[in-house]
Amino acid sequence: MPKILVVDDIPAIVDFSKEFFEDAGFEVRTADTAPGAIAAQHEFRAGVILQDLNIPGGGGLHVYETLRAEGDLVPIIFSTGKPETLGDLTKMVNVSALRKPTNPDVLMAEVQKQLAASQPAAPASPPPPAERPMNPIPPPPPKFPR
Question: How far, in Å, CA of 59 to CA of 20, rounded?
Fold first, then answer.
């Protein structure tokens, strides 16, 4: 079951997102502040974080910087109602950005995209075994002159 952490200080958005993702088969945790988001990620280890850029306690960038400094490369999808604040977010590691309000289909597509991109690639199939003779008896050793 995929895990998502939803971070927003607007209860209606948190409630909608929680229900939306649970109905889609996700395990969901929520937080409404930057420190709460960091603590939740430490405990929950979400596969993706959907968070408002402007949250109390340091903001979404504080969450990003703290998790990256700890080596956590979880994909983060920032959302904001103020597109001018998006700036260069998408140049950051494992980050994407959406404008609020976001169409639920667009939101789900972005979450699925980020989850897929963060999964390690499946190992390549091993090459087929080299053809072997049917006779398991090894050839005789070479003869050396005496």
Answer: 24
Non-local (6+) Cβ contacts of 61 within 8 A are 53
Cβ atoms of 37 and 25 closer than 8 Å: no
Task: Please state the pTM of the whole predicted model.
Answer: 0.78
CATH topology of domain 3-118: Rossmann fold (3.40.50)
- Domains in the chain: boundaries: 3-118
Calpha distance 98→106 (Å, rounded): 9
The two tokens of residue 47 are 């596969």
- Other Cβ atoms less than 10 A from the Cβ of 87: the count is 11
pLDDT value, residue 102: 87
In angstroms, rounded to a whole number, what is the distance separating the alpha carbons of residues 102 and 99?
6
Residues sharing a CB contact under 8 Å with residue 2, sequence separation 6 or more, in sequence order: 25, 26, 27, 47, 48, 115
**Alpha-carbon radius of gyration of the chain:** 25
pLDDT in the model for residue 139: 63
